[in-house]
Write a structure and sequence with these properties.
The structure holds two protein chains of two kinds. Chain A is an all-alpha fold. Chain A contains seven helices and no strands. Chain B folds into two domains: 30 residues; 158 residues, Glutaredoxin, CATH 3.40.30. Chain B is elongated, with a radius of gyration of 21 Å. The chains are: A mainly alpha, B alpha/beta.
């Protein structure tokens, strides 16, 4: 009982840690964009969502919000201009950046002849895993269903006929 | 059955391993393909570095093949490719346009005076806006435009003798640019 409680406490603390780290990164990214001013909360929310969405071209695995690379700073300004000054929709901003920096800036790449495999491979691997799992599950009962007729005959031969009832009662 | 349950996971493991290997190998070359290849070079209206009164537009670059080289004085690789650009300027009749990217004009002018100016003209892109139109994410980057202003090739990184010989010179020739033998001879010596 106490052990179960201990494990739960560990998980609670881990959860708290993850939450705190999330808050810290939110504060961090907010500190990078606090020079931008917005007329409405909707614009600000859209801007923040967009810079979360795009990948920094220079730094491979960081989004625009999380990068301090000069190009990421510039692109944040561009996104701000497109959203606030030019009043573009989210999709127009996406198209604008994709036209200049390619599919690379989209963390969510379109399904095209060049990108089909990044969509298919995980699904195929998942399907394969499911198939293996199903086969394993189906084959498990064969091993736990007790002795087959030939095996029982062999057991009898080895143990002899001296205590057949004893063996039976033990199985029950 | 027991054979299958051994070889199927092993096969999947090897498959994942090789995918990872290929993936990381691809990741090692971190130049992303330009979204501009086979597309028209973007419209722009930029000031000349050495004469801010004068502006240049895309139309003024058209009519002959053009190399657009994005550079800055803060970029060490730009200095290392500078010698090759000087050779290209001296030994070919391609139009060489510099884009001085996120730089201070006075530093850029001093840099050109000190090391030599291979460019037919240099555009002042101190705020990097032209760079964003071009999909630039660092310096140096070099674009090859045909006479109609279509982007036919992009190089992220320096123009070195190997790149010149393997990638740039054949494409310039295909566009009808005259290259004197010394350009290739010199770059062979340099490599």
């Amino acid at each position: 009982m106490t052990r179960a409680f201990g494990i739960r406490a560990v998980f609670v603390r881990l959860g708290l840690l993850v939450w705190l780290l999330g808050q810290a990164s939110a504060v961090f990214s907010a500190s990078q964009i606090d020079t931008f001013e917005f007329a409405s909360a909707v614009e600000e929310r859209r801007f923040k969502a967009l810079i979360q969405e795009f990948r920094c071209p220079k730094c491979l695995n960081t989004n625009l919000a999380g990068s301090d690379a000069p190009i990421a700073q510039d692109l944040r300004k561009v996104v701000y201009r497109l959203v606030v000054t030019e009043g573009m929709t989210d999709q127009e901003v996406r198209d604008y950046l994709q036209a200049r920096y390619g599919d690379f800036v989209l963390y969510n790449p379109p399904f095209t002849s060049r990108t089909w495999y990044i969509w298919i491979v995980p699904l195929a691997l998942g399907g394969l895993g499911l198939l293996v799992l199903l086969r394993l599950r189906r084959s498990v009962p064969k091993h736990t269903g007790g002795l087959g007729p030939s095996e029982q005959a062999r057991l009898k031969r080895i143990v002899g006929d001296t205590q057949p009832d004893g063996v039976e009662s033990k199985q029950r | 059955m027991s054979r299958a349950s051994f070889y199927i996971p092993l096969g999947v493991f090897v498959l994942i391993l090789s995918l990872g290997y290929v993936g990381f190998d691809l990741g090692a070359r971190n130049d992303l393909p330009s979204a501009l290849i086979d597309k028209p070079f973007p419209n722009f209206n930029a000031r000349l570095l050495d004469d801010p009164e004068q502006t240049v537009t895309r139309e003024q670059l058209l009519g002959r093949p053009t190399l657009v080289n994005v550079w800055a004085t803060w970029c060490p690789t730009c200095l290392s490719e500078h010698e090759q650009l000087m050779l290209i300027a001296a030994n070919t009749d391609v139009q060489l346009v510099g884009v001085n990217y996120k730089d201070r004009p006075e530093k850029a002018l001093q840099w050109l005076a000190q090391f030599g100016n291979p460019y037919d003209l240099v555009l002042d892109d101190r705020d990097g806006l032209l760079g964003i139109e071009m999909g630039v994410y660092g310096a140096p980057e070099t674009f090859l435009l045909d006479a109609n202003g279509q982007v036919v090739y992009k190089r992220v990184g320096d123009i070195n003798p190997r790149i010149w010989r393997a990638e740039l010179a054949p494409r310039l020739k295909a566009l009808g640019v005259a290259i004197t033998d010394t350009a290739e001879q010199d770059s062979k010596d340099a490599s």
